[in-house]
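1st attempt posting a full record on here, be nice pls
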Amino acid sequence: MDDAALWSYLGWALPPLWAWVLIYALRTFKEWPAIMARRNEARRDTASAADALLARYENRVASLEAAEEKCRFDLTEALRRLGEIEGYMMGRGKASQDAQLIVSAEREIEAAKRDNGK
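the predicted structure (as tokens):
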């Protein structure tokens, strides 16, 4: 089939095809602002969702940092109290040792008095 025959065969379809292309182009041109508005709204929604997620993560990080600081303070306070208790226990042990020395010295004195009295 030569070109002329092809054009004569398809010639009847070209005007409706061009009409359809023009109608579709006109429709797209008329709806273009609405299409761009939807696209921009979707971008804004995505951006605001990302900002909200970032803000939520920043709040979570801040709360975790505050909890960490509180734990560090509590640990420091517990170690301080443990040191005080250990010192108290050492002092109590020292006092107990001193009391045992006094008691044993008194027993030795009494034993010496008994031995001298014999």
